[in-house]
């Protein structure tokens, strides 16, 4: 996270100097593969292959999906595009009920994170402008064709609502920014919540882990599109790169903004009402956890902008 620059120089050295002495790459640039993303498998194409710290890393593009989903993955996330592996993918799709989603216009070999996908793709298509100029309004979400009845209601505790107001005032009125990288990060907070639930429930449940993975995925994709104020965009481009995810840099301040947008994001996903109700309960429990640790997770004051950020 903090040492990403150091890592990049090390990666460069490894990729140029260590290749002959290390194990050969399993996949080559331009090769079509199958890639795990969350609990599902998707068809992808290897764009780049680099040796980092004696481990091969691959930059993949998920076929049929916006390039914003492109990411670096390890060999453990990839499989050769063979008949046996395709059958494995199809079996996994059937198990998770992927057939129900074919009406949405996506094939069953769709890309990750079922809920956020459709909405965020719509954001990209609708705005159709470069990053940094996506929205004229810094706050508020366009509801489009989603009816109010469909929106999931997420009740944000009053103290966290005040936190959102303070957050808005620091950035938009006082020209201050959250100093990055934050500690704890979004990843840290999600891990702490998982530990908290595990101790409270006496066990680690798959459903909680899946919800937290969903929140992380939503956050990483939604942050540059709809969670940043205009004055924060320059800082984002300086702090986040292809190999650094927002959830490993940003903290509770930006994570809380996600819960304001989640009702609309979920409305574009085809999720059964019973499942939405359970998700809603888990979101509320997570918000109570944030509220309980508000003094630890959130900043009480932001920093004034640096010279490089001021021009942004």
Layout of strands and helices, then pairs:
Layout: H1 4-17, E1 32-37, E2 40-52, E3 55-62, E4 71-74, E5 78-80, H2 83-95, H3 114-127, H4 158-173, H5 186-201, H6 206-227, H7 233-239, H8 252-267, H9 273-292, H10 294-297, H11 307-310
Antiparallel strand pairs: 1-2, 1-5, 2-3, 3-4
Give a verbal description of the structure:
Residues 92-102, 114-126 have a biased composition (Basic and acidic residues). The chain is an alpha+beta fold and 312 residues long. The protein has 11 helices and 5 strands, in the order αβββββαααααααααα. Helix 6 packs across helix 8 and helix 8 (252-267) packs antiparallel against helix 9. The longest helix is centred in the C-terminal third of the chain and has 22 residues, at 206-227.
Short description:
This protein has 312 residues and is an alpha+beta fold. The chain has helices at 4-17, 83-95, 114-127, 158-173, 186-201, 206-227, 233-239, 252-267, 273-292, 294-297, 307-310, and strands at 32-37, 40-52, 55-62, 71-74, 78-80.
